[in-house]
Amino acid sequence: MKNITINVSKKYDVFLGDGIIASCDEIIGSVISPKKIAVITDDIVDTLYAEYVERILSSNFSVKKYVIKNGEASKNIDTLTSILEFLASNDFTREDALVSVGGGVVGDITGLSASLYMRGINFIQIPTTLLAMCDASVGGKTAVNLKYGKNLMGTFWQPSAVICDTEIVKNLPVDIFNEGMAEVIKCDIIRKCGIIDAVIEDKIKDNIEAVVEKCILLKKDIIEKDEFEKSGQRKFLNVGHTVAHAIEKLSDYKISHGSAVGMGLIIEAQMSKKLGYCDNKTVEKITKAVKKSNLYFDIPYNPKDMVCAMKKDKKNDNNLISFVLPKQIGECFEIKLSPEETENLISFVI
Ligand code: GLY
After folding, report:
1. Does the C-beta of 237 come closer than 6 Å to ligand 1?
2. Could you tell me how many helices (H) and strands (E) the chain has, helices first?
3. What is the CATH number assigned to the segment(s) 174-349?
4. pTM
5. Residues spanned by CATH 1.20.1090.10 within the chain?
6. Which terminus of the chain is more solvent-facing, meaning fewer CB atoms within 10 Å of its CB: N or C?
């Protein structure tokens, strides 16, 4: 088992290794001493992993479990309230802890619940998707969606530990694995580390532990410099995401985050090329990697509606829409565009 220490306002470790979920009780016991644990999961992950985690934790802790419906549509205030009411009705106190077992939705809403319940209690992330291991579980961003847009309600609340069992990603259904690939490809676009070449050459699955580690190390580096997204570096993790969040919102969250990010990476690379910042070779490489991960689809929305959805993005200011665009593989920059410029660019590229 490897430990990657995240040195932010609250220092914690990401534990990484094959089969380590079997030791989740020891790992959790080594970092916090809760009296009770609430396992939060969804109705798909429950039978796959959460029941198992519940059984293991029950030998050392008093455990309650709360199951939400799988999918982005659950990431809302009603589900958040139901988790908080569950904690209160089961007499959870600040001495206790939450453990999220699931993908990004479960992790984000559990983190937000932990940050709000009694003004904050400990929580542990056990991500069960590639996407959550490589991105959502590390860094302390918590959120639910509002009807106006994605992740508009949230806090920064760091977990006490993240337990990444790489055996789990090896057993993922191929479509769920591929969705995670969008965030993995994104890491190489932010800082060149050979991932896109490995995707194109079909060498990801054989080296998945190393790939997950590279993504976590990139994230560590960025959030240690800009934990609260104040100085600008953390925004770079949002390359592809301005377009992606608009696609997700317009689809009423039926198009998954991973698929939307895949297309967001391509469209934003094409926008950068049209603006004269990146060359065709870069666009082609990104497109090839996204297609190879089976994340390519035709965008079913018109540019006007996409821009309308983008106007609510958290990164915007002064009515300008913020994008993090690639210059080349390994180098991105932030640019703010007016809604009119954005609509023209989107009309040109899709
Ligand atoms: N998922 C982007 C971030 O953690 O900042």
Report:
1. yes
2. 15, 11
3. 1.20.1090.10
4. 0.95
5. 174-349
6. N
**CATH 3.40.50.1970-classified regions of the chain:** 2-170
Q: What is the pLDDT along the chain (350 residues), one digit of tens a residue?
A: 999 999 999 999 999 999 999 999 999 999 999 999 999 999 999 999 999 999 999 999 999 999 999 999 999 999 999 999 999 999 999 999 999 999 999 999 999 999 999 999 999 999 999 999 999 999 999 999 999 889 999 999 999 999 999 999 999 999 999 999 999 999 999 999 999 999 999 999 999 999 999 999 999 999 999 999 999 999 999 999 999 999 999 999 999 999 999 999 999 999 999 999 999 999 999 999 999 999 999 999 999 999 999 998 777 787 899 999 999 999 999 999 999 999 999 999 98
Q: Are 4 and 220 in contact (CB under 8 A)?
A: yes
234 C-beta closer than 6 A to ligand 1: yes
Integer angstrom CA distances of residue 141 from 105, 151, 301: 12, 9, 28
How far is 193 from 207, CA to CA, in rounded Å? 13
For residue 223, give the ligand 1 atom closest to its CA.
5
Find the helix packing angle between 174-190 and 208-225, rounded to 10°: 50
Architecture of the domain spanning 2-170? 3-Layer(aba) Sandwich (3.40)
Q: Residue 233 and residue 305: Cα distance in Å, rounded?
A: 29
234 CA distance to ligand 1 middle (Å): 7
Give 238 Cα–ligand 1 centroid separation in angstroms.
7
Q: Is the CB of 150 under 6 A from ligand 1?
A: no
Out of 125, 138, 141, 226, give the residue to mutate to test ligand 1, the one with the largest number of ligand atoms within 8 Å of its CB.
141
Question: For residue 237, how far is its CA from the centre of ligand 1 (angstroms)?
Answer: 6
